[in-house]
Amino acid sequence: MDGGDGGGGVSLAHLIAAANRRLEDELAAQLRPRGLSIEQFRVLESLARDGETTMGALAGAVLVERPTLTKIVDRMSAAGLVRRAPDAVDRRRVHLRLTEAGARMVDDVLAAAEAQERRIAQRLEDVGETVARKVLQALA
User: Fold this and answer.
1) What confidence tens digit (pLDDT) does each residue in 21-51 have?
2) Residue 23: CB partners within 8 Å, gap ≥ 6?
3) SS3 assignment, position 11
4) Are 47 and 96 in contact (CB under 8 A)?
């Protein structure tokens, strides 16, 4: 790498991927003792934010394909964190919501995620968190 000074031959895509890997590794280390993966955390976070949602909508929100989400939700349902409910009109659609245990887990893991957010903001002080957010939103 080029030392992070913004010059030299490392592509922007590589730098973004490296930053993502580092941040996910940090968060995974916080989630692992709680028995959660990054993807399971995203499911909990999304359901806490949006309330009940369909599997299709959730797949997009948590950045995984539907078959992968089904496996994740199977494990989370077995652990008592989420509940599935068939749609009253279209039985092919499945709705998901947090259980009480899932809601308690959200409170715990969101605290870890918020601590990470604070650490990221501190790292970005020189360039400004607002600028970094705008850049990343433009790329997302």
Assistant:
1) 999 999 999 999 999 999 999 999 999 999 9
2) 116, 120
3) coil
4) yes
Count Cα neighbours of 138 within 13 Å in the Cβ-side half-sphere. Answer: 6
How far apart CA 30 and CA 123 sit, in angstroms, is 19
Torsion angle, alpha carbons of 31, 36, 37, 41, to 10: -80
DSSP annotation of 33: G
From residue 79, give the alpha-carbon distance in Å to each of 10, 40, 100, 108.
Answer: 42, 11, 12, 16
Band of the pLDDT at 7, cuts 50, 70, 90?
low
Give pTM, 2 decimals: 0.79
Count of CA atoms in the C-beta half-sphere (13 A) of 102: 27
Dump pLDDT digits (tens) for 47-101. Answer: 999 999 999 899 999 999 999 999 999 999 999 999 999 888 988 888 999 999 9
| Spatial distance between the Cα atoms of 78 and 20, rounded to a whole number of angstroms | 29
Q: Quick one: tokens of 59?
A: 């797949």
